From TrEMBL:
Coiled-coil region list: none
Membrane association type: Multi-pass membrane protein
Protein name: Claudin domain-containing protein 1
Keywords on record: Membrane, Transmembrane, Transmembrane helix
Residues annotated as transmembrane: 7-28, 133-156, 163-186, 206-229
Gene name in the database record: CLDND1_0
Single GO cellular component term: membrane
Length: 245
């Protein structure tokens, strides 16, 4: 039998885990991690330029390097995500046009001067970019694995496997937090190498905040699962000792 306190902790932990998974999944699949906004006066001048349509065409259909697509995003109020890069296109109303990063692009080397291979590889930016791509996938995989362990625990009618569920959720929370940290560090290093124009403002997007919220939710779920497993084990040990006595 499972005490009501343990059952409540398991239910709350499961709800927190579900919310964290939904938030992280939405964050990974959307492009609003970082957004650029140009001041209105400058933006209208840029859009009146005849090169805008050419920039849009190259951005969507061309094989641009990091420097080229970053400059286009600066000029056209772009947004950056883990899998997507987008720009705002006046056609005739403002509409978002997005291009996904291919798998080779996710693992491509980053250079000390973006777009200039002769400047040498920037290992820190390279591995930051790869980590921000891989860590959320690892986090979701850990949560999926923990759910399988939880199902096995229910079938076995045992609370003991929840210790493993708690550890897996703790690791998932650390991976989610690492994703946000790697992304922010990567954007900061990019801006040091290729800073946006003075007329362009950068801001964190709602997708990043969803990923940031998912991390403490996973850690709170981990704490509840670990508490339930540890407390139930102590209670079971005391009950066994009492029966033996």
């Amino acid at each position: 039998m499972v005490d009501n306190r343990y059952a409540t902790a398991l239910v709350i932990g499961s709800v927190l885990s579900l919310l964290a998974t939904v938030y992280l999944s939405v964050a990974v699949g959307t492009q609003n991690w970082y957004q650029y906004r140009m001041v209105p006066a400058t933006n209208s001048n840029a859009n009146s330029n005849g090169n805008t349509s050419e920039l849009v065409k190259e951005f969507i259909h061309g094989d641009l390097d990091e420097k080229a697509y970053s400059d286009t995003m600066f000029l056209l109020n772009g947004t950056l995500g883990l899998w997507w890069r987008c720009i705002m296109v006046p056609n005739p109303k403002m509409a978002s046009q997005c291009v996904s990063f291919t798998l080779p692009q996710q693992f491509a080397s980053k250079y000390k001067e973006p777009g200039n291979e002769k400047s040498g590889e920037d290992l820190l930016r390279t591995y930051m970019w790869r980590c921000q791509f891989l860590l959320p996938l690892v986090s979701l995989a850990l949560v999926f694995l923990s759910s399988l362990v939880g199902v096995c625990a229910c079938l076995c009618r045992s609370v003991t496997p929840t210790l493993g569920v708690g550890v897996l959720h703790l690791l998932a929370g650390l991976c989610s937090l690492g994703t946000v940290c790697c992304f922010l560090a990567g954007v900061d290093l990019l801006h040091r190498s290729a800073s946006p124009p003075e007329a362009v403002d950068g801001a964190l997007g709602w997708s990043l905040y969803l990923a940031l919220i998912s991390s403490p939710l996973q850690m709170m779920a981990a704490a509840l699962f670990l508490w339930a497993a540890r407390s139930h084990r102590k209670s079971y040990t005391r009950m066994t000792a009492y029966r033996v006595a």
